[in-house]
Amino acid sequence: MNDIDKDGSTEPSVLLEKIAGEALEAQATDIHLEHTTGGISVKFRIDGRLVDMAHLKTPAASRLPTLIKYLAKLKTYMHRCPQDGEIDGAKFGFKGRVRVSVYPTVEGEKVALRIFNEDKRSFRLKSLNLPEDYLATLKRQLRQPEGLLLFTGPAGSGKTTTIYSSINYILKHGRTNIITIEDPVEARLEGVTQTAVDRAVGLDFPQALRCLLRQDPEVIAVGEIRDENTARITLRAAFTGHLGLSAIHAGSVVSVFVRLLEMQVEPFLLTSALRLVTAQRLLRKLCTGCGGEGCEECLQSGYKGRLPLVEYVVVDEDVRERVKNCSSEKSLLEFLKREKSFRPLGERAEYLIEAGKTDLAEVQRALGPGSVYAGLQTGKDMA
Ligand SMILES: [Zn+2]
User: Fold this and answer.
1) Ligand 1 mean position to 26 CA, how many Å?
2) Per-residue pLDDT reduced to its tens digit, 47-75
3) Interstrand relation of 243-248 and 147-152 (parallel, antiparallel or unpaired)
4) Residue 144 CA to ligand 1 centre (angstroms)
5) For residue 377, which of 17, 80, 224, 241 sits 20 to 30 Å off, Cα-Cα?
């Protein structure tokens, strides 16, 4: 891409369109432009990783940050403070928007563009590449009238996409009174009432939940359970005739139980309301063009596209009993491995490596070293 402005005669606006075009072509989610000594560096985020694309030294390139600030209606004369804005995706030929954030650096400015391409984001369960056994289980649970489904995984693990796609599935299967509480709303879902928490006016998750439950929705999706109040209200709602979906911060299925017990949620409420717990990661797929060697298709990285890695457990009578009487994270994990269709992330990852879908380096990046053959992170005692 270094020759994108070969003779140095390109206008900055044409140059920007060319860069955006390349980014869309590469299915990048972000474009980073940064003043460096003697030019502008261009990086794309592809499959979750930043990739060096070019180092442009032309006068047009050095004017890109100012042009972007102008398009995003930011103060072009201000260089010393961070600014945020937005550009309509139509400017680059797609439906959606580009979120712009500008940050001052010692060399000049760093501009990050996040692409929200609505053409690409249809949020359909069947297009997520979820393992078949899991997809069938998830769909079955989504058709139930009540109960709570919890999703966990670090930022960028695809859990929001799974939740959004699940909501669309519920919508398609007849239930239309669906309310979300998010922080912030990441994408608009047609036919769903989406609300955002707003701490400035004292509207946090528990407060918003209490208000919205009075409107008696059939389905309620809570952006994230972060505290014991939110946990308790959500679980109680799921126990009294609502279907609930929520994310929770924990590393694995087993740690979700531990986290909730640590929040002092009554084991009875926890186990009677909870139906399905899912932990997710996204793994980069080995490029099918070169098998991981590196080629033009995959920009020499050896990877192209991503696929979800999922572990889950359906909370049935046995699991319920076990959680209530469980003394440690380790013993619960041992129980699930022995008795259930449950397979830990590490084991499922191993299978994907054997099937040639990804490699050990990528799994270790996503799960941490040693995780493939252990699947066991801690032996921490439960509260
Ligand atoms: Zn390749």
Assistant:
1) 13
2) 989 999 999 999 899 999 999 999 999 99
3) parallel
4) 43
5) 224
Q: H or E segment at 271?
A: helix 267-273
- What is the maximal distance between C-alpha atoms in the chain? 72
Give me the mean pLDDT over the 135-139 stretch.
Answer: 97
CATH classification (class only), 2-117? alpha beta
- Residue 304 Cα to ligand 1 midpoint, Å, equals 7
Residue ranges covered by each domain of the chain: 2-117, 125-374
69 CA to centre of own chain:
27
CATH code for the part of the protein at 125-374 = 3.40.50.300
Single out the residue of 30, 59, 35, 40 nearest to residue 1, CA to CA: 40
Q: Point out which residues pair with 110 in neighbouring strands.
A: 34, 103
Angle at 198 between CA 178 and CA 185, to 5 degrees: 45
Strands (E), the chain: 30-36, 39-46, 49-56, 83-88, 96-104, 109-117, 147-152, 178-182, 193-196, 219-225, 243-248, 274-286, 303-314
What gap in Å lies between CA 207 and CA 230, rounded to an integer? 9
Distance separating alpha carbons of residues 321 and 267, to the nearest angstrom: 10
Distance 290 CA to ligand 1 centre (A): 4
Ligand 1: centre distance to CA 289 (Å): 5
- pTM across the whole model: 0.82
Q: Which residues of 180-207 are buried (b: 16+ CB within 10 A; e: fewer)?
A: bbbbeeeeebeebebeebeeeeeebbbb
Cβ neighbours of residue 14 closer than 8 Å, sequence gap 6 or more: none
Task: Give the CA distances from residue 283 to residues 42, 143, 168, 194, in Å, rounded to whole numbers and listed in that order.
Answer: 24, 28, 24, 29
| Euclidean distance between CA atoms 47 and 306, whole angstroms | 6
Tokens of 149: 């489904």
Pairing of strands 30-36, 39-46: antiparallel
Total number of residues shown for the chain: 383
Mean pLDDT of the chain: 90
CA of 299 to the centre of ligand 1 (A): 7
Other beta carbons within 10 angstroms of residue 105's beta carbon come to: 10
Q: How confident is the model at residue 93 (pLDDT cuts 50, 70, 90)?
A: confident
Instruction: Tell me: pLDDT of 376 over 80.
Output: no
Residue 228: CB atoms within 10 Å = 14
